[in-house]
Specification:
Largest sheet: 5 strands, antiparallel
Low-confidence stretches: 1-13, 211-233
Strand content: 5-15%
Mean pLDDT: 78
Number of strands: 5
Number of helices: 7
Helix content: 55-70%
Length: 233
C-alpha cells in the first residue's frame, strides 16, 4: 500500500471500531474513558478503554511519520544524498509505527469481540426478568430521579424524589435493559434527569399487576386485625 493511503484507511478503521464499541457498550469512547478514569467500569470494559487508548497513541505515531514523509517529498528540501537518507529512515519509522498500530488494533478487537458476543446473547427488553430490587428502583425512579456526580469524589449515584438512592451500577443495568433513559443535556454535577421508558413503564406495570395466588397468601394469625370475611360472624 502507498504511504499516502495509510492514514485515510487507518482513520476509517479506527472510526469503525469506535462505532462498534458504542454499539456493544451503549456509550461512546469519550464517555467510557471518563467512566474508566472514575473507576466505575468493570474489568473487561476497563481493559477495552486502555487498549483503545493505546491504539489512539499508535495512530498518532503513524500520522506523525506520514506527515514528515510528505514534508520531505514536498520540494522544501534540496534533493541530495542527505534527503534520500532521511526519506529512507522515515519510511522505516512509518513502517514500524504502522506495525505497532496494527498490533494495537488487534488487542482492541481481542477485548471488544467478547463484549459484543455478550451483548448479542443478552435477552431483549421484553424477555428481561425484573428482580424485586429492580422493580423497587423503577418505582422510585417513576416518581422523579436525577443522576448526580459528587464534586469531591467523582462518584455517581441516583437520588429519587422519594429519597431512595439507586446505585450507578443498577442504573446502568436498567439503562442497558432499555427500562430507563438519561437526559444528558444537563450537566451531571447539577443532576441529569432519569426517567422510565415505555419498556420500563410496561415492565413496572406488569410486575405490579401480578397478584399472588390464594395458596401463596399468608395465613392470618389468630386475633389479627382486620379479620377475613370468613372469620367474622
Amino acid at each position: 500500500m502507498s504511504p499516502d493511503l495509510a492514514l485515510p484507511v487507518t482513520r476509517r478503521a479506527v472510526f469503525q471500531l469506535d462505532l462498534r464499541i458504542e454499539a456493544a457498550t451503549g456509550h461512546d469512547v469519550d464517555t467510557l474513558g471518563a467512566h474508566r478514569d472514575r473507576g466505575i467500569l468493570n474489568e473487561p470494559h476497563t481493559e477495552l478503554v486502555d487498549r483503545h487508548r493505546e491504539l489512539v497513541a499508535a495512530e498518532t505515531g503513524v500520522t506523525f511519520y506520514r506527515t514528515l514523509l510528505h514534508r520531505l517529498s514536498s520540494g522544501e528540501f534540496p534533493v541530495d544524498a542527505a534527503l534520500f537518507e532521511r526519506i529512507d529512515r522515515t519510511v522505516d519509522q512509518l513502517e514500524e509505527a504502522a506495525a505497532a498500530r496494527n498490533a494495537a488494533q488487534r488487542r482492541v478487537l481481542a477485548m471488544l469481540e467478547p463484549i459484543e458476543a455478550a451483548a448479542r446473547s443478552a435477552p431483549r427488553c421484553g424477555e428481561q426478568q425484573v428482580t424485586a430490587a429492580d422493580q423497587a428502583a423503577l418505582l422510585a425512579i417513576a416518581g422523579g430521579a436525577k443522576l448526580y456526580e459528587h464534586l469531591l469524589t467523582g462518584r455517581l449515584s441516583v437520588t429519587t424524589a422519594s429519597g431512595v438512592r439507586v446505585s450507578y451500577a443498577q442504573l446502568q443495568r436498567l439503562q442497558s435493559a432499555g427500562f430507563v433513559a438519561l437526559d444528558t443535556s444537563h450537566p451531571v454535577h447539577a443532576g441529569q434527569p432519569v426517567s422510565l421508558t415505555d419498556a420500563g413503564r410496561a415492565a413496572l406495570a406488569a410486575n405490579r399487576r401480578a397478584k399472588p395466588s390464594k395458596a401463596s397468601l399468608p395465613t392470618a394469625r389468630p386475633g389479627a386485625w382486620p379479620s377475613t370475611p370468613a372469620q367474622r360472624r
